[in-house]
Specification:
7 helices; 6-stranded mixed β-sheet; Molybdopterin biosynthesis moea protein, domain 2
């Protein structure tokens, strides 16, 4: 059976995914969440013509010729506007953020004035509307300030707050269940020291990636290589408590690779199994009713790389994220790389930013899918297309930067 391409697999995993639903959260807690609906402004900002500087609000016609001598009739400060209007030959002392009084059409900065009692002299001409922030120059009531599908940054929630939203509608976080299988696995600090034991690590990295993408994660623990035990945990994960089951291990076709048989026995329709990528060929994806299942390889690096390519985009898509990924970036090779074979390769690599802003990438010499020390030292994945020819230092390339 021919291996499925990475592009086809990604399309199947995230191609027909929609957001899970929405909830209102306080604007202070909305950073990192995905906006579920367009968010219109509830007010106009500024709500009136406002001064951008400290100085005097005047009529431009009165200061066309300088020096001009005016009578100060009051003061306008932020939150304490002047209640009257400015007439011919008059000025109002004004401060940054204060409402420009009726009749005035410009603000003379205080550095271009001199004052003696209630008389102020302007020493430089100031054009109409100079130093004035016009009503609605930022946004107006009813305009769509933020679009649905946007993952809210700190800047976005500042805008949402300024638009007078105490709460914002965001997509519900996907509920992810994690299981890891293997008779050889023990929890950190709980092994007996036998050479046959492997300390479990995948689940910790997968949980971190899923949470970074916006999920709520529940670790259902370690399961031995026993079909009945695996089916029991899979059945719980498919019961409706979770939106996505993510497994690690048992995804290949050996005698002890029981995840696919367990999933099929529990009614999961697997649409993806075995992909032309390195590392991570034995990857599975399917669903049962409203629950999706992503079966990742057991090798630690394979598991983590596949999570970056498939799990994080899927979690983002389940929140309605308009750009679920995989999120790639352009770079240049820092060294020569050999020609690639039939599988899309995701090589662990290091980035170096040059003075001109360009990013140059060096893959590690060892690309073994069990080498966690190399994964931890890397800060990106260098993507090599199937059958890519040998490339020289300086050639353009594509990377997936790590987000941590």
């Amino acid at each position: 059976m021919a291996l499925m391409s990475v592009e086809e697999a990604v399309g199947l995993v995230i191609g027909e995914v929609s957001a899970l639903g929405s909830e209102d959260v306080p604007v202070a807690a909305a950073a990192g969440r995905v906006l579920a609906q367009d968010l219109p402004a509830r007010r106009t900002q500024p709500p009136a013509d406002m001064s951008a500087m400290d100085g005097y609000a005047v009529r431009g016609a009165d200061i066309a010729q300088t020096p001009a001598h005016l009578t100060v009739i009051g003061e306008s400060a932020a939150g304490r506007p002047f209640s009257g209007s400015v007439g011919a030959g008059e000025a109002v002392r004004i401060f940054t953020g204060a409402v420009v009084p009726e009749g005035a059409d410009t603000v003379v900065i205080q550095e271009n004035t001199s004052r003696d009692g209630d008389r102020v002299t302007t020493t430089a001409p100031t054009a109409a509307l100079r130093n004035v922030r016009l009503k609605g120059c930022d946004f107006s009531a009813g305009m769509p300030g933020l679009k649905a599908g946007r993952r809210l940054s700190g800047r976005d929630i500042m805008l949402a707050a300024a638009m007078d939203h105490a709460t914002v509608p965001v997509s519900r976080r996907p509920r992810v269940a994690l299981i890891q299988t293997g008779d050889e696995l023990v929890l950190p600090g709980q092994g007996t020291g036998k050479d046959s034991e492997i300390v479990v690590s995948n689940a910790f990295g997968l949980a971190a990636l899923a949470r970074r993408a916006g999920a709520e994660v529940t670790d259902l623990g370690l399961v031995g290589d026993d079909l009945a035990a695996i089916r029991a945990v899979v059945a719980r994960a498919l019961s409706g408590e979770f939106d996505l089951l993510v497994s690690s291990g048992g995804a290949s076709v050996g005698d002890h690779d029981l995840m696919a048989p367990a999933l099929r026995a529990e009614g999961v329709d697997l649409s993806v199994h075995k992909i032309a990528l390195r590392p991570g060929k034995p990857l599975m994806y399917g669903r049962k009713a409203g629950v999706r299942v992503l079966g990742l390889p057991g090798n630690p690096v394979s598991s983590h790389v596949c999570a970056m390519v498939f799990l994080m985009p899927l979690v983002r898509a389940l929140q309605g994220d308009g750009v679920p990924g995989p999120l790639t970036a352009p770079a240049r090779l820092a060294v020569e790389v050999a020609a690639n074979d039939a599988r899309r390769d995701f090589m662990r690599a290091r980035m170096e930013r040059h003075a001109d802003g360009s990013v140059h990438v060096t893959p590690f010499a060892s690309q073994d899918s069990a080498m966690l020390s190399v994964l931890a030292a890397a800060d990106c994945l260098l993507i090599r297309a199937p059958f890519a020819p040998a490339a020289k230092a300086g050639d353009p390339c594509e990377i997936i930067p790590f987000e941590d």
